[in-house]
Specification:
Chain lengths: ~450, ~325, ~200
């Protein structure tokens, strides 16, 4: 039904290059450039005027907390994927720390079908590495991989797979399913009671410190393990300069490791914690200015492969309290594109082509999402995000589609507005507003 | 001054003004009628999420000497222990009509949170938050130091600061809100500060603090100090590997009889020994040191009331306050 | 503190005229000193309490004149300062006031004849506060009031026993008292400033 409609996107600049018309027909890119308007299918097409806008492959998030099942007060698959669409995404990976934990085929299929029913983006469930995220027994990785959800990314995110033997086995085991273990690198003993980055600011604020070495030591161990067993390893939300160094070193040795950074770690520092406003409380914590700069450099030189939002909505009461009692996490789906444009594109560190790589192509490749993160080329699935890069907007958490109001960018003026999103040829966002979900087959 | 959250927020002029007013308040404590009408009809709430009888009764005495009504709210056995949030508690106090909130909380930054949100618009006094700050303790310590320093130099204390004074703060700096508040305030008042502690009990990042860091108490004492402030050390810290055991801690960083004897051999009482209390006699301070003429422990307690009177007076007088109750800001029906 | 007009909003005066010169002030102080001795039938039990900031130097001047008539009397021994800040009824209205020290003569005020000394008597509220402050400090036999200038416009049933000069004023005018002890050596006069 909706995918049978055709759209002619006029004047957009694919990856920021020369303007080109794009014809979307039956869920695919039917023609580009001069051919688009003359294509027989163009006659009946709805015209989308996009002169001056940037056309990007739909964004793919490897790290989203959709909270369903279990914490529907914080977010649901429906509200989270609406937020994703508005943020320019066409696919998200739903982290496993739901309740019940996504550690069986049943739970991942539930999340997957909720995503299908919602129809705003592809929802790819992440499977837990260990049963109940307890870190002691491997979960049914094979069953999740073979389920309808086709799980390829396994993570205990929120908790580190700390046991080195269990981590080794998990790295080895996922090879059978072309999977990847996404590690939340946090040495638990070194971070007992930790509240914020350990450094000059924590010393003054009297908040228990979260040392960089707690992240770096786990990354160092795991890249060596991955090298030893020849497996794919992904490092979630890298936050320190030292972590970037270790990953750079590992890649130079040929270790099959990929790494992600969140938008907030590209912009915000632990100075913000001086307000004691828990909206800045996040795991891993906001770090120093030097770390922010090292993360940007690492992202620009390819040491860090992708942007992962770590979108972590919380109900307001989880943040309207004293720092120590507050939940960790920030929303991110609806600000990711703007923050990355602001910190990386407008600083001249990356091009829009690089932007497409780190937000779409590379995350789709790591997550083995076959029909996402593709080139904007004839015959490819029409997952397209149009961005008005010149637009400026002021972040208002209360105007967002996510249930979470915990955006650390509140009140900030940011560049870049998502104007339209085509999800397998169907417009989920038009004129900067939610359009209609895509209705697909059986689920 | 709208709130008192951290001594970092106090300028030199602010700090001296508080100490000067505290001197007038201290004089009231020596009169037969130990009461001033300045805060008559105002309500001060002592909101204590942590037990601290000493600090609470000091604030209570201060408020009562200024004729304020005092409501003591202890989290234990209250709705807080049944899961009520800080926000709900604060809004309740607002509805009751609290004119000032004195808060003690186990979480660093809880007073700052109260001050920054619209949960309550009364002035907030930090009476100790987690391992962050305890500004009124630092002010009473500065008051005690100033009294000693001006007497030693034969000048009037009113209007004076602590220029040239050398103060050693000894013990568990990492977990001490007293140490942090004192460092900022003593530096603002011109004193030189040395922090003495085992390296495990100094916060990571304290290397940039405006003080000298020492691991050697004897060397610090030998180099000459005008005041030694001993901090309370919890014996349980040894279970978290901060030090091997209390015996070794006491030998290396406690103010024991031998160190008192060494001090007595060098001067005739110019160096004072301070402790914020409650003391662990025999651990960080020996009984002989605590009870010696050098000890200012009881003077500190007495000065605490005067300093807290000054703080409450400054926060609750003047036109920077919210509009009077007749204004529309007060909720209807109250 | 006693100079109640000091807390009025600062606007430039359109005119200013001197109502008491330095010599006038000296003369007035001498006269009040004699009145006090006469009313007290001597200097016995006399205590002069000045209200900061300008009441205190006035009390000192009065004490010196009184002591001059009574050989062997140390003026400092009958002079004190009474701060009334904490007793004011406008603590929540004006900017926060810093209290000044209260110092009583060594003999105290119990059963004494206390003469409160202030520069300008206006609404009477400062004196009301002073009476409350005295009550917290002791129980004098008699309390009297001496002021350099009475400018009228009372808001409380209070009157002065000894007045240097009665000065009819408009409420828009300001009475400025300058005393050398507070305002510098060449500054010794009472001025009325008219404001628009």
């Amino acid at each position: 039904m909706s995918t049978n409609t055709s759209y002619l996107i006029r004047g957009a600049k694919p990856l920021g290059n020369e303007a080109s018309d794009i014809l979307v027909l039956d869920g695919k890119i039917a023609a580009l450039g001069a051919d688009a308007a003359t294509h027989p299918g163009a006659a009946a097409a709805t015209v989308i005027e996009a002169a001056g806008q940037i056309a990007l492959p739909g964004l793919v998030d490897l790290h989203t907390h959709l909270r369903e099942p279990g914490r529907e007060d914080a977010e649901t698959v429906e509200t989270g994927t609406r937020a994703a669409a508005l943020g320019g995404f066409t696919a998200v990976h739903a982290m496993a720390n739901s309740n019940p934990v996504a550690d069986t085929a049943g739970v991942v299929e539930q999340v997957w079908s909720l995503g299908k029913r919602s129809g705003w983006v592809d929802v790819r469930p992440v499977g837990a590495v260990t049963v109940g995220l307890a870190g002691t027994q491997m979960s049914e990785i094979g069953a999740m991989a073979d389920s309808r959800a086709q799980v390829r990314v396994f993570s205990d995110d929120g908790i580190c797979v700390f046991d080195p033997l269990l981590m080794r086995r998990a790295l080895e085991y996922v090879k059978a399913f072309d999977g990847v273990v996404a590690q939340h690198a946090q040495e638990p003993r070194l971070t007992e009671g930790a509240q914020m980055n350990e450094g000059e600011v924590s010393a003054v604020l009297g908040l228990a410190g979260w040392p960089a070495v707690a992240e770096e030591s786990i990354i160092a161990r795991d890249v060596l393990l991955a090298e030893h067993v020849g497996s794919r390893l992904h490092i979630c939300h890298v936050s320190t300069a030292g972590s970037v160094e270790i990953i750079r070193w590992a890649k130079s040795r040929g270790v099959n490791v990929t790494a992600e950074v969140t938008p907030h770690h590209l912009l915000l520092t632990d100075e913000l914690v001086k307000s004691y406003d828990p909206v800045y409380k996040v795991n891993p914590p906001l770090r120093r200015e030097a770390d922010v700069m090292a993360l940007r450099a690492g992202l620009a030189d390819g040491t860090i492969d992708i942007i992962g939002t770590d979108h972590a909505p919380h109900p307001s009461e989880a943040k309207e309290c004293e720092w120590a009692a507050a939940a960790m996490g920030m929303t991110g789906l609806e600000t990711a594109l703007s923050v990355v444009q602001h910190t990386m594109v407008e600083t001249g560190m990356i091009s829009w082509a690089d932007f497409a790589r780190i937000t779409s192509t590379a995350p789709a490749a790591i997550g083995r999402v076959a029909d996402q993160g593709r080139e904007l080329a004839m015959g490819e699935p029409a997952n397209i995000t149009l961005v008005d890069a010149e637009a400026r907007w002021i972040v208002d958490p209360f105007a967002m589609a996510t249930k979470g109001r915990n955006s650390p960018f509140k009140g900030l003026e940011l560049p870049g507005k998502v104007t339209s999103v085509f999800f397998h040829g169907h417009p989920t966002v038009l004129g900067g507003k939610l359009a209609t979900p895509r209705v697909s087959g059986a689920f | 001054m709208k709130h008192l959250l951290s001594t970092l927020d106090l300028s030199r002029a602010d700090a001296i003004r508080i100490l000067d007013i505290a001197e007038e308040m201290a004089a009231v404590g020596t009169r037969e009628v130990k009461k001033l009408p300045a805060l008559r009809g105002r309500t001060v709430v002592n909101l204590f999420f942590e037990d601290s009888t000493r600090t609470r009764i000091s604030f209570e005495a201060a408020a009562k000497r200024l004729s304020a009504d005092v409501i003591n709210f202890s989290a234990k056995g209250s709705s807080v222990s049944k899961g009520e949030s800080l926000k709900d508690t604060a809004q309740t106090l607002q509805a009751i009509g609290a004119d000032a909130v004195v808060i003690r909380h186990g979480a660093s930054g809880a007073p700052a949170r109260l001050a920054a949100t619209d949960w309550i618009d009364a002035p907030v006094v930090n009476a100790g938050d987690g391992t962050h700050e305890h500004p009124t303790q630092a002010l009473l310590d500065a008051f005690t130091l100033r009294t000693h320093w001006s007497a030693l130099h034969g000048h009037t204390s009113l209007g004076s600061d602590l220029s040239g004074m050398r103060v050693a703060i000894v013990g568990d700096i990492l977990h001490s809100r007293v140490a942090r508040s004192n460092l900022w305030l003593l530096r603002t008042l011109g004193a030189e500060v040395t922090m003495v502690a085992p390296p495990t009990l100094l916060p990571h990042g304290s290397n940039v603090w405006p003080c000298t860091i020492s691991y050697d108490l004897d060397a610090t004492l030998a180099s000459g100090t005008d005041a030694v402030m001993m901090l309370r050390v919890q014996g349980e810290r040894m279970h978290d590997s901060y030090f091997p055991n209390t015996r070794e801690y006491s030998r290396l960083w406690g103010f024991d009889d031998a160190r008192l004897a060494a001090l007595d051999a060098r001067d005739t009482g110019e160096t004072i020994i301070m402790h914020p209390g409650p003391m662990n006699r025999g651990l960080e301070i020996s009984s002989a040191a605590a009870d010696s003429p050098r000890s200012t422990v009881l003077a500190q307690v007495a000065n605490g009331v005067a300093v807290r009177m000054a703080v409450l007076y400054l926060l609750l007088s003047g036109d920077q306050q919210r509009p009077a109750p007749s204004d529309a800001t007060r909720p209807a029906g109250l | 503190m006693g100079n109640e007009q000091n807390h009025a909003p600062a606007t430039a005066p359109v005119s200013a005229r001197i109502v008491l010169s330095s010599e006038d002030i000296d003369r007035v102080i001498t006269r009040i000193a004699h009145e006090i001795i006469e009313a007290n039938k001597g200097v016995a039990d006399l205590v002069l309490l000045g209200i900061p900031s300008r009441g205190f130097p006035l009390a000192q001047r009065l004490a010196q004149r009184i002591a001059a008539t009574s050989p062997g009397l140390d003026p400092a021994s009958i002079t004190g300062q009474l701060d009334v800040t904490m007793y004011r009824d406008d603590l929540r209205r004006s900017t926060t006031r810093t209290p000044a020290p209260t110092r009583l003569p060594a003999s105290g005020i119990d059963d004494k004849v206390v003469v409160l000394v202030d520069d300008v008597l206006y609404s009477g509220r400062t004196i009301r506060a002073a009476l409350d402050a005295i009550a917290d400090l002791g129980r004098p036999r008699i309390v009297r009031l001496a002021v350099l200038v009475d400018r009228g416009h009372r808001e409380l049933p209070i009157r002065a026993d000894h007045v240097g000069k009665n000065l009819p004023t408009a409420t828009t005018e300001k009475v400025r008292v300058h005393l050398a002890e507070v305002d510098g050596a060449d500054n010794n006069e009472v001025v009325i400033e008219a404001h628009a």
